[in-house]
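pinning this so it doesn't scroll away 📌
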Amino acid sequence: MIEAQRKLVPEMMELMQQRYRMLKLIKMSGPIGRRPLGQIAGLSERETRTMMDILRAQDLIHVAKEGTSITPEGSSVLQSLESAMEDWSGRASIAKKLTEFFGIRAVKVVAGNCDMDGNATAKSLLGMEAAKQFSTNIGDGKVVAVTGGSTIASIPSHIEKFSDTTDQLFIAARGGVGDDIGLQANVIAASFAEACGGMYNTFYYPETLSEEAQKAFRNEPSVVKMLKLYETTDCVMHGIGNAQKMAAFRNSSEEEQLLLRNSGAVGEAFGYYFDKDGHVVHRIRTVGIQTGHLERIPLIISVAGGGSKAEAIMAYMASAPKQTILVTDEGAANEMLRLIIEK
């Protein structure tokens, strides 16, 4: 029916997509002021005001002193339209092609491109979709491991408390990396626990270790406890990095960075570096989730976006476990399709 409407009244579909996107942005960012809403939507102040008046008249949004937020009716409309709008936008078709190519459980594609202006909006959409996939698929899972990074950090704010999550445990999938405390796996695990009303375990060890340090740390009671939890993990949520950028982020030696370039490393996850065919070409010494753990973990949610990440995502997905759900954006998805066609 939507396809017939698009042919008969094409301007109606464009208008509906604009209002749908505005409603989704309000749900994602609300309560939010009119000016910042217009900025992230790419609309003038007049266009924003007009659209908000229409949405408010239909009781889809609520405008108050603290900002604009979505109403229960608005959330219901979003949910009802989601499937049709994804089909109409072409994202559902792209997701299906990528799912079949990678041979994994599912691929979900959100609007936008994390590499472009409005990067924060695209990243929030990734976080919203990842939160939805987690809430929908976690089931009776109790132990959830999360990595660090800005993309995974965008997920907790979109998770709603479950009815029975007091015994759900969030843990860091690896040690600390980088200087931004807010993007450390420990802090993100705590954010998830707060959002879900669950618990979390801290893991205060650096991600990269010398051989001697790794042997010593493995005997520490807190590490022994964490290693046992990795064996019983029910879900992992992780990002995917560009190999060279991650090596630089870790302050890897020139020798190690040269090794990565010479071995054709393009992607990174869990401290493992992958070439374009999915082969592990290098790994760092770390105490954390290993690729060997992944095969028996029921739910794996990989989250990464931006056209520049396409090769890195494909490198990891070439050997990703079949139970993986990939959440990505249009920028990365379209670039991956282009690379697939060129093969």
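📌 and the second one:
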Amino acid sequence: MSSMEHPVFSLSTKPDMRSRRYERNGNWIDISPSRYGIATVHDRDVLIYCISQCMAALNDGQKVHRTMRFKAYDLLVATNRQTSGRGYELLKDALRRLQGTQIETNLRQGGKEYFKVFGLIDSAEIVRETRDGRMQDVEITLSDWVFDAIENNHILTLDKKYFFLRKPLERRLYELARKHCGNQRRWAIGLELLRDKCGSGSTVKEFRRLVGKIIEDDLAHDHMPSYAFTFEGDNVIVRPKKEELVSSMPSHSLRVDEDATFERARRLAPGWDVHMLRDEWRSWVLDKGIEVKDANAHFLSFCKKRGPHQR
């Protein structure tokens, strides 16, 4: 939630070497780049994926740890990234920026107030790599700041369409809408303040043009998830596209065997992220009020319908 409120991530698609400071209502945050630049909005996908794995484990009553291992391919698919060799190289770059970006802040989180410098992840390691340079297993150790947010449930879910947004500013606008508008009927913010919260280096005039283009594209293609944006004078108005939004995953869960069942699920639905499939299956079961007697068998049946023979 803190990273949704404050402009921690760069909107640039090129290496951003600018240090920055953001202050509001007594809170401040300093962000400094490494030699690879500041972590970008698209690099944030890695953190989102790690957090989603932790939250899924917590929902299953499992313990979570700052260090986690997963298949790089699963992350790339889940976050709508290319799975070519280039995709793996871009993931390596993202890991470098996430580890190298230094943050100092007094933001309170989980009852703690930070006065220290830290990175977004403590370390990242490629556990196995194929001969053509593609990662197979990745091990990441999250920073205390990120892990405290997980343990204290300072997390908001994101619409899955978020990963299909290609423009960094589109993603940032959605994050702010999700954080501040939520399920309210309306949220208004001044254009200049919105520019600052986005971390944009554009003039107010140019920023208005950029936001206006996103609004026009959304009217034409309805590509922005969950929220609609309009101008009212010098304010930007945000409204939910639906009257009621799901704010969080249900506290109870349908438990699936992550070893044997997940392995079978990968064979039934190759190319799909099984964790995302499990969350989608749970939502579908709960929305429809389906009584599930054997969670593993029911989940596998759901996965089978996503298999190549069903496409």
